[in-house]
Amino acid sequence: MAEAPYLIALALLEQDGRRAMPLQGKSLPQAIGDADAPGDEGRRQVLELLVRVWQRSDEGSLRRAAAGMSLLLAEVPIEALQVQLPQLKANWLNSGDIDTLLRELGQVSSRLWCVRQEPRSNLVFELIP
C-alpha cells in the first residue's frame, strides 16, 4: 500500500433516471490493518456521504443503482484519486456496469467493503474479495 492511504465512501445511485456517484473521503495517517474493519473513520465517512445523498433528494427522486452493492468503502492510495478513480467513475456513469466497477475498484484499492445496515443495528462492513 502507498505511504498515503485514502479512505473513500462511494454511493451508486440514480436520480431522475440518471446515474450518479457521490464520493466522500479522508486521508489516513496509516493503512488499515489486513484483518481490521474500517472502524470509526469508515463509519464517519459513510455517514457524511449519506447526509449529502439525503440532501440531494431535494433535487429529485433517488434510488440505489446497484441494490445491496450501492454503498461502498475503499482504501486506496492517494495517487489513485487523480487518475484511476475519476476514470472508474466516468466508466460507471456511462455504462452502469457494477461488475466492472467492482473489479476495477478491487485492482486500485487495498481493501474494498460493501456497507449495509440491518434494522436497528450498526453499520456492517463486508469485505469484498
Task: Give a description of the structure.
This protein has 129 residues and is α+β, with helices and mostly antiparallel strands. It has one domain (5-127). The protein is built from three helices and eight strands. It has helices at 39-56, 84-95, 98-108, and strands spanning 5-11, 13-15, 18-20, 23-27, 62-64, 71-77, 111-117, 123-127. A five-stranded antiparallel sheet has the order 4-1-6-7-8. The protein has a three-stranded antiparallel sheet with strand order 3-2-5. Strand 7 and strand 8 form a beta hairpin. Helix 2 runs antiparallel to helix 3. The longest helix has 18 residues, at 39-56. It is globular and about 40 Å long. The model has no long low-confidence stretch (mean pLDDT 91).
Features of the shown structure:
five-stranded antiparallel β-sheet, alpha+beta, 32% helix, 129 residues, three-stranded antiparallel β-sheet, 31% strand, single chain, 8 strands
Give me the secondary-structure topology:
Elements: E1 5-11, E2 13-15, E3 18-20, E4 23-27, H1 39-56, E5 62-64, E6 71-77, H2 84-95, H3 98-108, E7 111-117, E8 123-127
Antiparallel strand pairs: 1-4, 1-6, 2-3, 2-5, 6-7, 7-8
Helix pairs in contact: 2-3
